[in-house]
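Design review, sub-item: ligand-bound model
Attendees: FS, YL, KQ
YL presented the inputs for the glycinamide ribonucleotide complex:
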Amino acid sequence: MGIYFYLRSMKNIILFASGAGSNVQAIIDFFKDNKEVVPVAIVCNKPEAGVLNIAKAHNIRTILIDRNSFKSEAFVEQLKAFNPSLLVLAGFLWKVPDAVVAAFPDKIINIHPALLPKYGGKGMYGSHVHQSVIDNQEKESGITIHYVNEHYDEGNTIIQAHCTITESDTPESLAQKIHRLEHHFFPRTIEFLLSN
Ligand code: GAR
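KQ shared the predicted structure:
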């Protein structure tokens, strides 16, 4: 295999996260022996986020953003320089600027911890979602992996996976069920998208 072919077959992914980063960890673990799919950078908006320790432990470059740098043309250029095949929002809580969406058409995906279109939109993230689902006495919840467009949680759905909710479930126990679904389906969905 020539070096040119090898480089062409490399699929760089950029991970975006705001918190603990358990999804980022699951993605890194899943692709660790895969020579073609490489997490090349982690974009984070919180200097104290746990995901930065994960980045350090795996020697993955981090890009710490603030509101201004996130919206800058320089940021778009910085992302382009990685030649990414996919931008993956894995627990990332800021709305992606239109310029970034426009620069990477059909190359940005997000995971949401509910069955969209229910429990989506501004303010619906993490434990707020699970609290609302429990408050409304839903019988099931799940995850949605979808493309990102200019509107919060409104891009085309790629997959959904469901879980049942029992009477004894709390927002915390539901969050655990959701995380299990996420850690299983998110890396496999990324793999599927990159193979097509
Ligand atoms: C995940 O459950 C993800 O679906 C959710 O944040 C959590 C991050 O967990 N994302 C959103 O709510 C986006 N609206 P993690 O940091 O352990 O991966």
